[in-house]
Amino acid sequence: MVNLFINTLIKMFFLLTPFFVMSMVLSMTRTLSAQARRTIVIRTILAILVIAFILFYFGNIIFKLLGITLQSFQIGAGALLFLSAVSLVQTHQPPAASEAEDISVVPLAIPLTIGPGTIGTLLVMGTEISGTAKIVASSALFCAIMLVGFILLGASQLEKILGSKGISVLTKLTGLVLSALAAQIVFTGINTFGR
Hints:
- The chain is 82% helix and 0% strand.
- It contains 9 helices and no strands.
- Helix 3 (34-57) packs antiparallel against helix 8 (132-153) and helix 5 packs antiparallel against helix 7.
């Protein structure tokens, strides 16, 4: 169970692309006050929590309603996750938000933090894991989201420590880890297809 917790925590932490999201938060809120940025980050964290747990716990129902097999979804989710990984190694410069604009749910929670690849992975994980293991995985998912939240709340301080180049390097490393996760999900779907 400890291994499941650690593995899920690490996997979900990278799936949520914290350093990429942090760079987006810094770029999109650069004209806002510290209080306005903090409010947006807290709303984003709450939105991520709600969305992630809905996807994690109701994946089975979604599969049954759509008539999709787990293996098919694994292959599709892996492909989307790979595309998300590729986008992380490219340069993005989003437009700055205004004080009146709420960017917490869209685009920060969806699709920047929980994009198509992450959605697919959460659905697959929620369907594969059951019983006590699901509670352990849920705890790991919650902890991963909280870690991302702490990173986003301390974005300004981390930017001073790491600098824009440091954040860029961490974002690209996250992209490499995600590409490996994507390959693993696709291979698992192919290996179990038709069994």
